[in-house]
């Protein structure tokens, strides 16, 4: 029984983040070009990603959905920021706050024993203040510290409406002041490299608990608020300033649609910008239930969002496909020579009344 074990017994083997710099997969992915099914799709996606990076005019937007950081992909994305492979990120809150920022505070995710996947021991885990993410475990007491830290960051801000990007930048500043407790953090690397991170549903994560506590503590006084409209406006300004763009989407949902929609938003603002020229999506979602996560990139073209010349769906679980795709372009050196766009600086010059 899980109850026969204490918390220390269960939280002893940390998740290790895969290091694409140590594994040259170029020959393997190239060999997949002459295979079939998902292997060939992945090889074509790798080629599109490489083209995206070699196109010096292309701004690359990385979209993240699903539990990716807890699964061991954190270093892939931190390296991508360091190597100028991405210029902006649109993500779910869990990846950025509950997982990446959480680890930057010095905490870890842990390998769960095989038996916990059954769900039969979830009540026992709850009694021990352990949360389960499929086959991964996390300390709920440490998550509460993350919640409290977010409240502290928000409490220190001037009461007004902020985009999620602005608050996440403050999270990076906090790590700079207090010391980042991990060698690889998306939030910290993005802060240092002026890469904007947007979380359109910012309250749907540990940040939301911090905001709830902030609102409660302020009572009738002035408060910090998250303005999703400002998020959308800022990302649209990036598309207007850099019309040639490419999307690398992992999962779907809000980050996928949010990033695709900036083409339409720019048109509404009176700017004729091209569709996203390049697009890759890694997903296990299906089109048959009408879900946005599984809607094809060809379908997005009917909305005027994605060009059909260089688009590829890869139906694969992210922890399998993402190291191959990012490892491929890294070891080929397709990112070399790309300049840092430092879009955070651009957005700080954009007035929003």
Describe this protein with a few key phrases:
353 residues, Deoxyhypusine Synthase, 6-stranded parallel beta sheet, 3-stranded antiparallel beta sheet, 16 helices, 11 strands, 14% strand
Can you walk through the features of this model?
This protein is of the alpha/beta class. It has a single domain (19-110, 120-344), classed as Deoxyhypusine synthase (Deoxyhypusine Synthase, 3-Layer(aba) Sandwich). Helices cover 48% and strands 14% of the residues. A 6-stranded parallel beta sheet has the order 7-2-1-9-10-11, sandwiched between helices. A 3-stranded antiparallel beta sheet has the order 3-5-4. The chain has a two-stranded parallel sheet with strand order 6-8. Helix 4 links the parallel strand 1 (59-64) and strand 2. Helix 3 packs across helix 15 (318-332) and helix 11 (228-241) crosses helix 13. The N and C termini lie far apart (58 Å).
Write the topology of this structure:
Layout: H1 7-10, H2 26-32, H3 37-54, E1 59-64, H4 69-82, E2 88-91, H5 93-104, E3 110-111, H6 122-127, E4 130-133, E5 136-139, H7 140-155, E6 161-162, H8 164-178, H9 186-193, E7 197-198, H10 206-218, E8 225-226, H11 228-241, E9 245-250, H12 253-260, H13 262-268, E10 276-283, H14 297-302, E11 306-315, H15 318-332, H16 343-348
Parallel strand pairs: 1-2, 1-9, 2-7, 6-8, 9-10, 10-11
Antiparallel strand pairs: 3-5, 4-5
Helix pairs in contact: 2-3, 3-15, 4-9, 4-15, 7-10, 8-9, 11-13
